[in-house]
Amino acid sequence: MTRFTSLLFFPFLLFIISCTKKPDLIFTLEGKISPVKTNYVLLIENTDIERKATKIVDTIFLDNKGDFKIDFNLEPNLYTLQFNMSNQVVLAIDKGQKIKIEITNANLKDFKSTITGSKDTEALLAYETLRKRSLDSLVQSVRREVKKVKKSENPDEEKIKDLEQLEIKNYSIHLAELNAFIKSKMGNTIGIYATSIRWKGEENLSFFDALTSDFESAHPNLKISVKLREKVTRLQQTSIGGTVINIEMKDVKGGLVSLSSVKKKYTLIDFWASWCGPCRSESKGLNELYEKYKDKGFEIYGVSLDTKRDKWMDALIKDHRIWPNVSSLEGFKTQAAFDFTVTSLPMNYIIDENNKIVGKNLHGNEIENLIARLLK
User: Fold this and answer.
1) Do residues 214 and 188 make contact, with C-beta atoms less than 8 angstroms apart?
2) Burial class (CB in 10 A: 0-12, 13-18, 19+), 261
3) Cβ distance 102 to 113 under 8 Å?
4) Architecture of domain 248-374
C-alpha cells in the first residue's frame, strides 16, 4: 500500500469505527456504604427464582470512602447487592435506570438502605412490605398460637388441628391480598417476576395469564418474560382437567418408585414435609381414608419436600404413612415440586387412571367427599 492510499484509508477507518453503534448501557448503579468495612460488594443475578438459582455477575469495588459508581450492559432482571453473609439489597432493574443506593450500618443488625431511581424496585419493596405484614398477621400469628398450645401442660389436639386448618385458610387469604396489590400497584414493573413464585390457584389463572401477556408486551424477549410464560403454562397444565406427567423418585429404601407404577383408579399425590404442621395434622385423616378406600381403587403417593432424611423417616413412622412415599431430599428444589407448581405446603392433586386431574388442593373432609363420590 502506498503512503497516499494509506492516508486515505486511515480517515475512512476512523469513520467506520465512529459510526459503529456502541452497546447501550442498560443501567447505572451508584452508591455509598458506611461504615466502610470492605472494599467490594457482589452483584448477583437471580437466574431462576423458583429454583432459587443465582449467579455472581460482577464484583463492585468501593473507594476508600465507601463510594461506587458503575455502568452495566445487563438485561433487566432481579439483582441482589450482597454486602456480607447476612445483609443484602434486592433490586428490580429495568433498562435506562440510574439507581442510587445509600447503605448505613452495613455490617450491623439495624442495616438500613435507601434506594432511588428505580420505580421497579420501589414497587417490589412495597410488595415485600405488604407480604411480610400480611404473612405475620394471617399465618405466622396462627403458627405462634399452635406452638403456645403445644407447649401447654395438656395440649388440646383438637384445637391444634383447628388452628392448622385455619393456617391453610388464612394462607389463601394472604395470597389474595398479594394478588390484589399486584393488580392495583405493580403494573408491568420488573418485580412482577419476583411475585410469580407465589402464583397459584385455579381462580387466578386468567389474571396471571393476562398479567403475563401485558408483561411480555412491555418487555419483549427478556429471559424473565419467558419464565413467566412458562410458569403460566405449568399452572394451566396442573389445573383441574389437565394431565400430569410421571414422577419417579427414591423411596425410603433407596429404590426408584414411579407414580405410574403405583397409581390406581384414583390416586392422591400428596406433597408434604415433616416440618409442615398442617401436613402432619392431616396424617390421621389420610390414614382413615387409606384404610377405607385402598381396596376400592384408591392410592396415595406421598412426595416429601424434606431436606433431612432422618426427619423424613421419623415423620413417616410417627404419622403411620404406610402408602408409597418418595423424596429427593431437595426441598422445594425437587423437580416434581417445580413440575406441579408447588410453592407452599400442604399441596395435593387427585388424578384418575389416565393421569387427568380431578381434584386439587383439598383438605379435611373435602378429600373424602370427592373420593366417596368418585368411587360410589
Assistant:
1) yes
2) exposed
3) yes
4) 3-Layer(aba) Sandwich (3.40)
